[in-house]
Specification:
Number of helices of chain A: 14
Largest sheet of chain A: 7 strands, mixed
Structural class of chain A: alpha/beta
Oligomer: homodimer
Number of strands of chain A: 13
Largest interface: A-B, 92 and 93 residues
Order of helices and strands of chain A: HEHHEHEHEHEHEHEHEHHHEEHEEEH
Distance between the termini of chain A: 70 Å
Chain lengths: ~400, ~400
């Protein structure tokens, strides 16, 4: 039959076959397969501390007998709370209606950004580029791949900052979007304000967008790190798109609440398209989010918890003469694999620690540039972190 | 400068300019612009009755001090509750792990389905088709447009069923997906089991997927309407994708909780891709959903409420000799505009009612085929419905 000779139209999006396995799903499976073993988990960067009671109470108080469909533009109170927080945090004037929309968590905001910006692939001679740092959160690349963009891998310089020299004119002209993420996952590095200015200068020259995932912005130890909006204040946030979340700041991973802020043209577009996408956040979650963005005391308390855990590991590594790079902010330490491990192989070192009951992420998992590092997420309670530090110290003492 | 002569790479997805305004956002704006006026609103199909207390209590009980990131595959308890409900409701054997994933509401599930199935547009000589009935929920078409598919408009026959004769070989070979929606929005029509069988037969012949939005499946008055899974039982649900939600069944629009069920290949693909998309539902909402899918008494009570309101309007229209078509299920009546209105123009009739304080949706808003009809959503409490019926009767008595 003639029909059967045409390419099978029931095939799914062919980009799916290019996706790497989703790492955290894999990690959970491996642990679940060993139910008798107790692991100390410094692998997944999931906050484990409590969501403050006043936030949970705000959620419960907002559950009404009858309710209506939430809007994608969000409650005006939530947009005002976010704009107010951004204004206080970065000293820039953020308008609740022109510069902000809520998101159903930052992963949703990240995954859904590229398809709203990318051109129709059938209209292009060459694919548009999305620039992603060589070690990065998996979702930037998965979204680019699924939406038929080409990934341009940005190398890091020796300070773990993307090397902007890689954006040559040939690259810049095809670039639609660049992803930044400081404080960085996995390195914990922080970018200076001048770096954001340099990126925006390039964006203006070539006409691409700059998306900055600032999920870890509040987990700092010395001084609050700068953000993209500060660098974009004099251009009315043009080409600047910031994504942030309550997951880390307020221990609210379970709630799925974040925001997108910046370029008023992009925000207007999001207000047009997002009501069609099913990304509206339940109003009771939005009410909890209003409470969370309006309070800083709980964030200070959380920073103090992380600072104690961080100091514990930094101390252990210093005593064992193990190098820690980046690691200025976020709840990660980016630790060089010791020389005693053959080829400083991060997978081998992580496997060795796994066998001793300690889970860390091998840097090689993020890409070749991470091969000689492991990522430690100091999210467990201080007692568990002490246990982990003891395992690390014992392993580092092994001949 | 040479750079400026290239097509502006900062342009957004050009499909955005093809989107029609999102109707419900517009309708809200028009009401908000007249703050002094009290409207009886039979326009938007948003349930107004209470979410049963036991469901709200299940949510509150599931809010824990600490919590972790929810998974896109959902709690096993939720998948089991959904599979159990489907098995009881349709008499088909649904496996909780092979045939079901939860969704963050049905709009999310609908919007996000097409891009996971469509081919890379740059690989095709002609665009893939997505078939959408000529009067339909806006999101099917918006998702197709945003993802660069071509919409094939399926005409209705005189029973308000899509006319499958329109799927000629030339259409079928390019077809990726067909959207069905029974009980139907806006007509309230119900499809017989034989119709689903006919569609699946075509799907097998040409190799396209059948997506059935069954959001209104539980709002029936005579007998429970059949669903796509019943017609697909003998083929292991191959090519069949059912989407349903708690929004209408359990008055849970505010909670954003639904599911996708059917073809095990599609479900396996969704379990691979959806963890990257940020569509995981908060666990406290999933716990409320487990309670909701496990109880039928509250659904029966809700059906009784709608039945009373429906009878009230049917009675009024019968007395005034106004024709009601379709309208077998869902909370809609599909009412022919009376002859007294020039050209039976639905916009003119809706405007006339608006001026008298009653909001209905003009059928012409859904497309030319709806031009001589209005859609009445009998969602308000019975007292408000009585008020609405009185306005309607007065208008129909006008000379």
């Amino acid at each position: 039959m003639a029909l059967l000779s045409t390419p099978c139209p029931s095939a799914m999006n062919p980009a799916i076959s290019q996706l790497k396995p989703y790492a955290f799903t894999q990690l959970r499976s491996r642990q679940d397969a060993m139910p008798g073993v107790r692991f100390v988990d410094l692998g997944v960067g999931d906050p484990q501390d409590e969501t403050p009671a006043f936030i949970r109470e705000a959620l419960v108080a907002a559950i009404t007998p009858a309710s209506r469909y939430p809007t994608a533009a969000g409650l005006p109170e939530l947009r005002r709370a976010i704009a107010g927080w951004l204004t206080r945090r970065y000293g820039v004037a953020v308008d609740a209606d022109k510069h902000v929309v809520p998101a159903n968590g930052s992963k949703e905001a990240i995954y859904n950004l590229a398809p709203l910006l990318l051109d129709d692939p059938s209209r292009r001679r060459t694919r548009e580029l999305i620039a992603i740092p060589e070690l990065a959160y998996q979702v930037y690349g998965d979204s680019a791949t699924m939406h038929h963009a080409e990934i341009f891998t940005l190398p890091f310089d020796r300070h773990w900052l993307p090397d902007l020299n890689a954006i040559t004119p040939a690259v810049g002209e095809r670039l639609k979007l660049i992803w930044l993420n400081f404080p960085n996952n996995p390195t914990g590095a922080v970018a200076p304000l001048s770096f954001y200015r340099d990126v925006l200068e390039l964006a203006g020259r070539y006409g691409f967008y700059v998306a900055s995932d600032e999920a870890y912005s509040e987990l700092w130890y010395d001084a609050p790190p700068p953000g993209l909006l500060q660098a974009a204040r004099d251009t009315g946030f043009r080409r600047a798109i910031v994504i942030n979340t309550l997951s880390k700041r307020s221990n609210m991973t379970a709630y799925r609440s974040g925001f997108i802020a910046g370029d008023p043209e992009v925000i207007a577009m999001l207000k047009n398209v997002r009501p069609r996408m099913g990304v509206a956040t339940p109003e009771f979650v939005q009410r909890a989010a209003v409470a969370a963005w309006s309070d800083e005391a709980h964030v200070e308390a959380q920073r103090a918890r992380y600072a104690e855990r961080r100091a514990l590991f930094l101390d252990a590594f210093t005593r064992k003469d193990v190098a820690v790079e980046g690691s200025e902010a976020a709840f990660y330490l980016w630790v060089r694999v010791p020389e005693s491990v053959a080829g400083r192989n991060s997978f081998q070192f992580a496997e060795h620690l796994f066998e001793r009951g300690l889970i860390v992420l091998p840097g090689g998992f993020f890409g070749p540039r991470g091969q000689e590092y492991i990522r430690i997420a100091f999210v467990p309670k201080i007692d568990v972190c002490r246990e982990a530090a003891a395992i690390l110290e014992r392993v580092l003492e092994e001949p």
